[in-house]
Amino acid sequence: MIIGVISDTHGWLRDEAVSALRESAHILHAGDIGSPEILKNLANIAPVTAIRGNIDTEMWAKQLPTTNVVELASVLFYVLHDAKVLDLNPVAAGFGAVISGHSHVPKIEWRKDVLYFNPGSAGPRRFRLPISVGRIKVEDGKLAPELITLG
């Protein structure tokens, strides 16, 4: 199973991001969506699990949770916008991955067999940071994360 991971679109869904996510069986959006059209367009590719980020303050975004848990390919994923406010123990909770955004800094990190994955920002460029999305391939419970630089 391929899981697409995107964050910090800020109302802008690049064609390159759509192409990079096209093979996804499911898409996780880690907040700062910016527009409900982003989620509609992503849903044309695959089912979407999205959470609300700090810029998602309009009425359409109020229906979105600030955190979410989704089980995909028998792995539990915990999705939140800012990993710095993580208030639970992912190992004790049985999560295989913590998915976040907010910093715009793409990151793959393993801690005690838990993947901490930030796809970076797929929206406007911030400072000199890359524009990117991510993919996580799941096979037999094993996670293989990948960052994809756009543009």
Task: Describe the 3D structure.
By secondary structure, the chain is mainly beta. The protein contains 3 helices and 10 strands. It has one domain (2-149): Purple Acid Phosphatase, chain A, domain 2. Helices cover 13% and strands 35% of the residues. The strands form 2 sheets. It has a 5-stranded mixed β-sheet with strand order 3-2-1-9-10, with helices on one face. The longest helix is centred in the first third of the chain and has 8 residues, at 36-43. The radius of gyration is 14 Å and the shape is globular. The relative contact order is 0.22.
Give the helix/strand layout.
Elements: E1 2-6, H1 15-21, E2 26-29, H2 36-43, E3 48-50, E4 67-72, E5 75-80, H3 90-93, E6 97-99, E7 107-111, E8 114-118, E9 132-139, E10 142-149
Parallel strand pairs: 1-2, 2-3, 5-6, 6-8
Antiparallel strand pairs: 1-9, 4-5, 7-8, 9-10
